[in-house]
Amino acid sequence: MTTPESGLPAGAPLAPVHYEDLVRRELAVDLGSAGDITSGAIVQRHVSATAMIVARRDGRVCGLACALFAFDVFGGVRYRIERDDGADVTAGTVLAVLDGPAMALLAAERTALNLLGHLSGVATATRDLVTAVGGVGHARITCTRKTTPGLRALEKYAVRIGGGSNHRSGLHDAMLIKDNHLVIAGSVPAAVAAARAAQGHLIRLEVEVDTLEQLEEALEARADAVLLDNMSLPDLERAVALARGRATTEVSGGITPDTIRDVASTGVDVISVGWITHSAPALDVGLDFETSA
Amino acid sequence: MTTPESGLPAGAPLAPVHYEDLVRRELAVDLGSAGDITSGAIVQRHVSATAMIVARRDGRVCGLACALFAFDVFGGVRYRIERDDGADVTAGTVLAVLDGPAMALLAAERTALNLLGHLSGVATATRDLVTAVGGVGHARITCTRKTTPGLRALEKYAVRIGGGSNHRSGLHDAMLIKDNHLVIAGSVPAAVAAARAAQGHLIRLEVEVDTLEQLEEALEARADAVLLDNMSLPDLERAVALARGRATTEVSGGITPDTIRDVASTGVDVISVGWITHSAPALDVGLDFETSA
Amino acid sequence: MTTPESGLPAGAPLAPVHYEDLVRRELAVDLGSAGDITSGAIVQRHVSATAMIVARRDGRVCGLACALFAFDVFGGVRYRIERDDGADVTAGTVLAVLDGPAMALLAAERTALNLLGHLSGVATATRDLVTAVGGVGHARITCTRKTTPGLRALEKYAVRIGGGSNHRSGLHDAMLIKDNHLVIAGSVPAAVAAARAAQGHLIRLEVEVDTLEQLEEALEARADAVLLDNMSLPDLERAVALARGRATTEVSGGITPDTIRDVASTGVDVISVGWITHSAPALDVGLDFETSA
Amino acid sequence: MTTPESGLPAGAPLAPVHYEDLVRRELAVDLGSAGDITSGAIVQRHVSATAMIVARRDGRVCGLACALFAFDVFGGVRYRIERDDGADVTAGTVLAVLDGPAMALLAAERTALNLLGHLSGVATATRDLVTAVGGVGHARITCTRKTTPGLRALEKYAVRIGGGSNHRSGLHDAMLIKDNHLVIAGSVPAAVAAARAAQGHLIRLEVEVDTLEQLEEALEARADAVLLDNMSLPDLERAVALARGRATTEVSGGITPDTIRDVASTGVDVISVGWITHSAPALDVGLDFETSA
Amino acid sequence: MTTPESGLPAGAPLAPVHYEDLVRRELAVDLGSAGDITSGAIVQRHVSATAMIVARRDGRVCGLACALFAFDVFGGVRYRIERDDGADVTAGTVLAVLDGPAMALLAAERTALNLLGHLSGVATATRDLVTAVGGVGHARITCTRKTTPGLRALEKYAVRIGGGSNHRSGLHDAMLIKDNHLVIAGSVPAAVAAARAAQGHLIRLEVEVDTLEQLEEALEARADAVLLDNMSLPDLERAVALARGRATTEVSGGITPDTIRDVASTGVDVISVGWITHSAPALDVGLDFETSA
Amino acid sequence: MTTPESGLPAGAPLAPVHYEDLVRRELAVDLGSAGDITSGAIVQRHVSATAMIVARRDGRVCGLACALFAFDVFGGVRYRIERDDGADVTAGTVLAVLDGPAMALLAAERTALNLLGHLSGVATATRDLVTAVGGVGHARITCTRKTTPGLRALEKYAVRIGGGSNHRSGLHDAMLIKDNHLVIAGSVPAAVAAARAAQGHLIRLEVEVDTLEQLEEALEARADAVLLDNMSLPDLERAVALARGRATTEVSGGITPDTIRDVASTGVDVISVGWITHSAPALDVGLDFETSA
Predict the structure, then answer these.
(1) Mean pLDDT computed over F28-45
(2) Which chain D residue is nearest to residue C205, measuring alpha carbons?
(3) Chain A contacts of B107, Cβ < 8 Å?
């Protein structure tokens, strides 16, 4: 898979271990102990059908493999992918055509669509921010750890499909000294010194700073990156100038499609946005049976 | 627990089996194999701290028990709940005060806040729709099966905390004949007849209809409820009049805080809204350490 | 699949998510850490065999897909189904013919037969009650929540295959006010009023009553259904007459093949029987290797 | 714990790892996504209650710890055990008194009772066989691998509580050469020789035989035990005489309370009975709220 | 599969239920939430490759099916096994050739090799002990319960592949009275009497003894086997003579390739060695991509 | 917890989510379906005992919390820790004293000791390498991804307790371009360029090089770190000199306590050693009951 923008690989793909259990659990919840009682009453076991997964709004597709796995669980469903993860589609676009037992298509439908809609929503929100920047500056758009419970790996993937980049995955893969750490450590230099002593050679260390004074302390302590939290645009510009050549700069807080271009124009390296994972609206997708079937 | 509006029980509470596994999985994802490397470097094992869970925006609280369980997993954390599920709070309100090992507070923070923010977001969106109706008509606000993957029980609960009611939980607890079933069955009467034959005595049967003609067919076939999908306001009014005394009426599609009052004024019984579960923005909540600790 | 009686769909089928984990856990228990030590000592890896699943008693088949999945787990086993779920068979009938590695056939045998025997036992007990009624009255035979731990979805399915219908699946899909609720609520009217206020539009409300006085209270409070618990036949007749046109009537308690016809003749709508799930004897089924192999 | 008969330990107790997951899964199934909607509507959160677990029939108690764990999952329930596993009780006997949130008592009730009723049924059936033997001969009553799917460890324990002994737990802990192995191996001597070569020093080897000729072959091959399958009483007597001092003798097939005394009188060492685990009727147990609460 | 030594079956094979969950969990740990970020950046999705699993040291192969399953999880990988479990190989030997998506080969590589290296290490250590004995005496080499956490079934299998035999699998499949039991029971005769009373007919009873006096007590109490713990060679010889014809003899403690021949020459039946499972060094194995690919 | 060497925090502690499932699974494997049959026969339920966890060899303690959790699962066991993780102990040192039901102590013993012995073995091997370096140079000792299947988080923790540092946790938290990537990418510059384009701002990039020519390419491409694989000491010295100030240097391959001092003296930054996790011998630890109990 390549992103439409670059022709480069879109980073690590999802693996089946990232979604198979989730899909099975979700099917079990939807089916409960009694199963699909409506379809069980109406549809004979031997009836086959053809159905299409269709976008009902414009957006970027993400999560097709997860969605199709919901049908795989039942067995006997074949499919043809028309527009895969990373494709930009308009309302009415057919993403995939499925063919198999009508009972399976009906039973897996909602599980499949909920996953596809959620992940496409994250990818679309990310894409829209990338688009809003419009090439100004050189900043990457990244997500945060403010992800939906249970969906971190999937949402991190959706951000990459949306053209964004990933921040750390969790508490384990990068050091990020935040305000609550400073309460414990007492000062930026003390916190950074302690972190440096334990820092693995493949681990980066970032420090969240609220003021230019804290920024200077973090730079002097040789943090690899600094997180400029909720600063005004003029302060951001000063901060970026101060940090240039000394640390990677990241901006966070209050980023919207309306404000992101101005933030990017400060020359910051990274713009991190929590809401693309925790509050992106789902993309509307549906499953339409062929009426002549 | 009682809802602020009514003094009545808010329906079924969450049970530990609804969230314990999710919280443990989410902590495992956040901690990875290396654990909380930042706090592990900075915080001595014996250091205790006091911290507050604080709302950063106005909204309705939901999910406090799930969030607090994230701290319980580590052991040694005590807490006092200030504002429990169902409370309406403003930015700055303290929801709970925690006291325990600083390492545990820092390691559980994000897992706890992500759950609390997500569920409070759903409860707040639901509450805002209930408020927007403002007592016009008698319709209940319900959710749909368009929930976030992995979170159905929790989101259904959040809808109840928001003052809404639950639609069916899945494919297993009510019959809902939708357009794809009609493609298979051929007609509304044929579909309803087949469903009636298999309908358990504690199961209700609803039929989704797009037109007044289909509505009349569903009523004649004695569906318990009818789902009026994407109808215009004038058609809605006619449909409600037609169904009065014969079936429960439900409206779905395109409901927003701006349009819901008009819809309610048609006298419909149920207004179902997908986006309160799949697209409600998270409520911003944070964890603040006491600086004098 | 259609039931032999009606030619209609037998309701919702089982899905793989209903049994795959159970089968894998059961195989792991049977194999332990040391595996099938008898077969491992006697059977060379490359040896194939043909075997038949055979009924050793008369009964109705149920659970063949679950049983065959036990062989699937090992890989390499092919099978042909001779008599599928819903078939009435006599002692000696071949249900399926399997062909594959002898090691796999031997290792999966007991897991497969235990499932098949248990579910066929439930289906057979249900069928025998349906037969005992012999068309008197119009009552359905239903199961209860008194199911074997871990097997609810499978036993509910077996009841449907036996020609019965399902009661609620659990605490979540219908309201049933029982004697312990009345202890809390104080009276039938108080309990029903509270339930009505929280009742979802796709949820039915049933009330368990011990006396005709309680029955009248429940009917006046407009319960959807009433559960007539352990009443004498004359009282049952009065109760059914009283409730006609006002609520669905269900009888429970002390139902046996000898008494069920009389109960059905009262005109009751539903006869629920706990023992068809918690105490039905297993159907004897075996696996016979072809001796010429 | 000691069995009433002997004052000796009843063998290995259950451990929490034997039942905790099962209880949690079963609660999750019963609560579904919507929870206990009846109690949630009727019972205020703060209401406490006292309830008693009561036997409704005569039998032997088994599974109390599993049943009580269902209440533990909700938190806040205290209990006092009146008659523990191994006690023989009559209808009306109180087994335990519980005190705690009424919501928790109601939500855990069915899960607890289903486990307790099932295991007490197995223990009671076993006890009744032991009683039917009445001290004739010296045979032990054992279960088989024909257990209910998912419940092997629990049912093996219930057999011990009923005064029986355990056969092998699975394919891994003893060698048992059965007819299907003989089909592969060609003869008893060939099968035993292969088994002997792989037999661990803590593993016993039993051979199932249908005829006295096969028995003699098994004894000559020095099997540790022989399983005499479906033999007539006279043949049994001859077989026991033949095997005396050479191998442990086990009888299986067609054992009922009416026939077991005659079988035991042949002097056989072990009588194994499949139906005490796969087909024992559940013991009727109930939960009664104190009405003055 | 047959062991090179004997042409006989190597005992029970592994089943998929013994390793599939472990492999999936291990892949999930290695991939984390972000996946294989290096390969994701460098390798285009459509690129295929051919790779070989190669031994980098001499040893005995074990665990190939587990290792290959790691690739199966990703789909699309085909393989040809060159040297299967039980084969003795030298450095440079190709064990299997794989062909499939380069992304899958790279993502599964470490999980596969860690399993294969660990199990081959156990098999090799066992083989080397068997070789060191060199046919002196008749003792079997067995493992103990001192296995690596999470890997008991796999390591027991590797011991069999190495030419060893299995001791009991756990606390459940044989009785072994150890020193801590004697502290509780007070004496060897008291402990054995209690054990005999509860001993199932397919269960063997072994007693650990430290002195010849304890040995005599155990033999008089008719233990099936005796475990001679940390005895000197002369005492071992006396013990073996004393026990001959009365009980199986097992030696444990301080066994190395240098000492095992002398121990075997005492005529002991079983030599159990803890370190072949808990401390055997892994066999070095690697995955080499074909450079012309 | 602080390491003896430094007084600093030893990095991230283990969390319960890192070991609780493993311990429960391991107990379930050891207990099987029949439980602890030896103790069940010998030990009365009400008997309490006091026992000590004792080191039988010199080494560094690691994993005490995991080991003690095995006893916690049974309930009723109290303990006092004498020497916690990170302590250096000699043979005979008491690590913890336990008091509780004898049945629980006996049933959890092996699970607890296997975990404690394995992790203490890893910590001891790491400590011994740190000691062998003896302060020469400034290199850290790190583990690799060659960990025991199922135990990565625990072994990474044990390495930290041993005074070592962690390499990356998996494929997800750092980029490491290895020889197989170079086969695909064609050259070091091409591989590094592709990786750089996808590299997150908190991710480091390391390149494995076999020759000084490859090293120069990697340095020119501005890799953050270089892994010098199996180089001779003279080449190592040249490589370290070449890389100084340009990239972190890591050495891997063939490191033993005898060679590590010379390697460290080259001035390399990191020495990674696979065998401290995959092949470290377990530390011998035991559980001794107090005989006067």
Answers:
(1) 96
(2) D38
(3) 171
Nearest by CB to residue A197, choosing from F8, F174, F194, is F8
Helices (H), E32-93: 37-42, 64-72
Q: What is the ipTM of this complex?
A: 0.96
Inter-residue contact B119 to B63 (CB < 8 Å): yes
Interface test with F, best of B30, B31, B33 (most F CBs within 10 A): B33
* Residues on chain F touching C32 (C-beta within 8 angstroms): 32
> Are B203 and C204 a contacting pair at CB < 8 A?
yes
D196 is catalytic: no
The confidence score (pLDDT) of residue B43 equals 95
* Average pLDDT of chain F, as a whole number: 94
Residue type present at position F194: A
Inter-chain touch E180–F118, beta carbons under 8 Å = no
- Residue range F58-112, pLDDT digits in tens: 999 999 999 999 999 999 999 999 999 999 999 999 999 999 999 999 999 999 9
Per-residue pLDDT tens for A221-244? 999 999 999 899 999 999 999 999
In chain F, the percentage of residues whose pLDDT exceeds 70 is 96
* Distance between CA atoms of residues D222 and D235, nearest Å: 20
Question: Considering only CB atoms, which chain E residues are within 8 Å of A16?
Answer: 73-75
Predicted pLDDT at C35? 97
Tell me whether residues A74 and C15 touch, CB distance under 8 A: yes
Residue B274 C-alpha, separation from nearest chain D C-alpha, in angstroms: 17
**Catalytic member of F208, F217, F250, F269:** F208
Which residues of chain B neighbour E29 with C-beta distances below 8 Å?
33
Question: What is the C-alpha end-to-end distance of chain D, expressed in Å?
Answer: 33
Q: What is the DSSP string of chain D?
A: -B-TTTSSB-SSPP-GGGTHHHHHHHHHHHHTTT--HHHHHHS-TT-EEEEEEEESS-EE---HHHHHHHHHTTS--EEEESS-TT-EE-TT-EEEEEEEEHHHHHHHHHHHHHHHHHHHHHHHHHHHHHHHHTT-SSPEEE--S-PPTT-HHHHHHHHHHTT-B---SSTTSSEEE-HHHHHHHSSHHHHHHHHHHH--TTB-EEEEESSHHHHHHHHHTT-SEEEEES--HHHHHHHHHHHTTTSEEEEESS--TTTHHHHHTTT-SEEE-SHHHHSPPPPPEEEEE-TT-
Out of E34, E74, E103, the one facing A166 most closely (by C-beta) is E34
User: Where does the pLDDT of residue E10 fall: very low under 50, low under 70, confident under 90, or very high at 90 and above?
Assistant: low
Tell me whether residues F168 and A206 touch, CB distance under 8 A.
no
* pLDDT interval class at C240 (50, 70, 90): very high
